[in-house]
């Protein structure tokens, strides 16, 4: 089944196939499902980018999008996530996209027989964000091998840091981390290194900044926004120390003048809005993978 729950569901070859498909979708070289397919986006946490770009991807593929709003559904009457998804499977949906605040919410959905695409689980995983980040990096550098990627900020609470570091290391990149020591996650940084902020920024090909995930914090950091910006943010001065061809990325939403100076959000090095554009193409490719049969997928095997 074409589940995409974590980046661990994809081999390196499958990642490359999704990036190749996304590139084709960006050139309007399309694919359409063989038969009418119905899909719903179940977002139990706020989202601007992931939800709207999935909907855009679905509509571009000609899928029938069944509206679902958690706050007007029977979730409010105590329905479990399993019963909600089982209901949508029973009425004929072909696949579901789910974002949920619970880490690994999908473990309780193992008996569901339609593909599940994870749009983010708590502090756990965000595979489609990872894939759109990989596409953006690949467009820029043509390869991942020996690229220096600095992931900076709230590592502990970031599902993007988890998905990206795992995939980037697997694809041959060197990943380093920086930010407040209180927010390290030993599991995430196990195979990377820690660098002080200035060194991380000066040596990186990709400076990847993370938002402070206040909604997931048990204890709050004792720093003002200004202090955080000066100690751990990409300031105007730090941007000047970056290598000539290095780029800035951020999964967004951005907290301007906290993790990144507002003037840098749309500067020449920034790929932040390019990441969002790529999100539509990557999600088209992920939906294609979810809706194809295993045989159809095998017959299309291509390496970029
Ligand atoms: N990057 C990301 O997941 O953004 P949203 O929370 O707006 O979907």
UniProtKB/TrEMBL annotation:
Biological processes, Gene Ontology terms: 'de novo' pyrimidine nucleobase biosynthetic process; 'de novo' UMP biosynthetic process; amino acid metabolic process
Cited Pfam families: OTCace, OTCace_N
Binding-site residues, L-aspartate: 77, 159, 211
Pathway per the UniProt entry: Pyrimidine metabolism; UMP biosynthesis via de novo pathway; (S)-dihydroorotate from bicarbonate: step 2/3
Catalytic reaction(s) noted: carbamoyl phosphate + L-aspartate = N-carbamoyl-L-aspartate + phosphate + H(+)
Keyword list, A-Z: Pyrimidine biosynthesis, Transferase
Keyword Transferase: yes
Top-rank taxon, per record: Bacteria
EC identifiers of the protein: 2.1.3.2
Enzyme class of the recorded protein, top EC level: transferase
Location of the Aspartate/ornithine carbamoyltransferase Asp/Orn-binding domain: 146-288
Subunit structure as annotated in this protein's UniProt entry: Heterododecamer (2C3:3R2) of six catalytic PyrB chains organized as two trimers (C3), and six regulatory PyrI chains organized as three dimers (R2).
HAMAP family xrefs: Asp_carb_tr (MF_00001)
Stored NCBIfam families: asp_carb_tr, PRK00856.1
Protein name: Aspartate carbamoyltransferase
Organism of derivation: Perspicuibacillus lycopersici
Name of the gene this protein is made from: pyrB
């Amino acid at each position: 089944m074409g589940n995409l729950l974590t980046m661990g569901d994809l081999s390196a070859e499958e990642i490359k196939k999704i990036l190749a498909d996304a590139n084709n979708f960006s050139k309007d070289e399309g694919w359409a499902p063989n038969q009418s397919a119905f899909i719903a986006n179940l977002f139990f946490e706020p989202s601007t980018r992931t939800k709207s770009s999935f909907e855009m991807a679905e509509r571009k593929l000609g899928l029938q999008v069944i509206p679902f709003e958690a706050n007007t559904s029977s979730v409010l009457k105590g329905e479990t996530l399993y019963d909600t998804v089982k209901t949508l499977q029973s009425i004929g949906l072909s696949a579901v996209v789910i974002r949920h605040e619970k880490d690994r919410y999908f473990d309780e959905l193992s008996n569901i027989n339609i593909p599940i695409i994870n749009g983010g689980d708590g502090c756990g995983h965000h595979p489609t964000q990872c894939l759109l980040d990989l596409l953006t990096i690949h467009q820029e550098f043509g390869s991942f091998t020996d690229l220096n990627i600095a992931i900076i900020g709230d590592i502990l609470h970031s599902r993007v840091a988890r998905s990206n570091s795992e995939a980037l290391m697997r694809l041959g990149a060197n990943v380093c981390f920086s930010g407040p020591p209180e927010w390290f996650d030993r599991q995430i940084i196990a195979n990377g290194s820690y660098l002080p902020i200035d060194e991380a920024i000066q040596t990186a090909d990709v400076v990847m900044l993370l938002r402070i995930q206040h909604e997931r914090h048990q204890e709050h950091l004792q720093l003002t926004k200004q202090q955080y910006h000066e100690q751990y943010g990409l300031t105007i001065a730090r941007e000047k120390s970056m290598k000539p061809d290095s780029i800035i990325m951020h999964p967004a939403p951005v907290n301007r003048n906290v993790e990144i100076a507002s003037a840098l959000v749309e500067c020449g090095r920034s790929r932040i809005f390019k990441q969002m554009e790529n999100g539509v193409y990557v999600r088209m490719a992920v939906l294609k993978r979810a809706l194809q049969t295993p045989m159809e997928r095998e017959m299309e095997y291509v390496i970029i």
